[in-house]
Amino acid sequence: MEYPKLILDLVDSLRQFSGVGQKSALRMIFQLLGWEREEVFLLAELLNRLREEIGSCPVCFNLSEQGALCLICSNPKRDKRIICVVANARELFALERTKQFKGMYHVLQGLISPMDGVGPEKLKIQELLGRIDETTEELLLALSPSTEGEATCLYLRRLITNSGKSLRVTRLSYGMAMGGDIEATDELTLSKALEWRRELA
Predict the structure, then answer these.
(1) What is the enclosing helix (H) or strand (E) of 19?
(2) What number of other Cβ atoms are within 10 A of residue 176's Cβ?
(3) Is it the case that residue 57 has pLDDT exceeding 70?
(4) Which has the closest alpha carbon to 152: 104, 85, 89?
(5) Is 125 helix (H, G, I), strand (E, B) or coil?
(6) Who is most buried in 17, 60, 134, 158, counting CB within 10 A?
């Protein structure tokens, strides 16, 4: 079926979203066509403002209003002795949803990936080192256990060791999911579960 060019252009635009194919994009467009004009204009205005008004926190590089501290960095109740390092803001918000972590964050804005041309100089690593002072007690590396995540963790660990800074460097533990079945668990996950085992209280 031949669609008007504007619809085809919108489909191409929407397909840039992860997990959105042609059918999903068309479904969204047909829903938009059923909206009231005011609702469509409001969506367009909000998308415009998103690019104009949302930027990075100047301290931790979390999402924030342009030029302003994020809600975490501006919260005096957060524990400044521990900094949790994440690759991106999505992972930061995932950790925040647990309501378990009360420290500060640092968003690297990516992971070391030589294959993709991403070296340490393209990440917010120097800014992280600049934040570590005598009050910092722990650096928690909350990076995915992928090849890129492992490489980034090793690089950061080496940097901290060579810098002579005295603090604990910890890592999220990895292993079996709650409710998981041992027989159905892959070997790498089982290996990590064994490696990170702990004594029962």
Answers:
(1) none
(2) 15
(3) yes
(4) 85
(5) helix
(6) 60
pLDDT interval class at 126 (50, 70, 90): very high
CA distances from 40 to 10, 36, 161 (A): 14, 7, 53
Confidence of residue 201 (pLDDT cuts 50, 70, 90): low
Tokens of 105: 């964050």
Beta bridge partners of 113: 118
Q: Is 19 left (phi over 0), alpha (psi -120 to 50) or beta?
A: left
Provide mean pLDDT across the span 114-119.
92
Contact predicate 50/105, CB 8 Å: no
Query: Which token pair is 148?
Result: 């890129």
Q: Is the pLDDT assigned to residue 165 strictly greater than 90?
A: no
Identity of residue 101: F
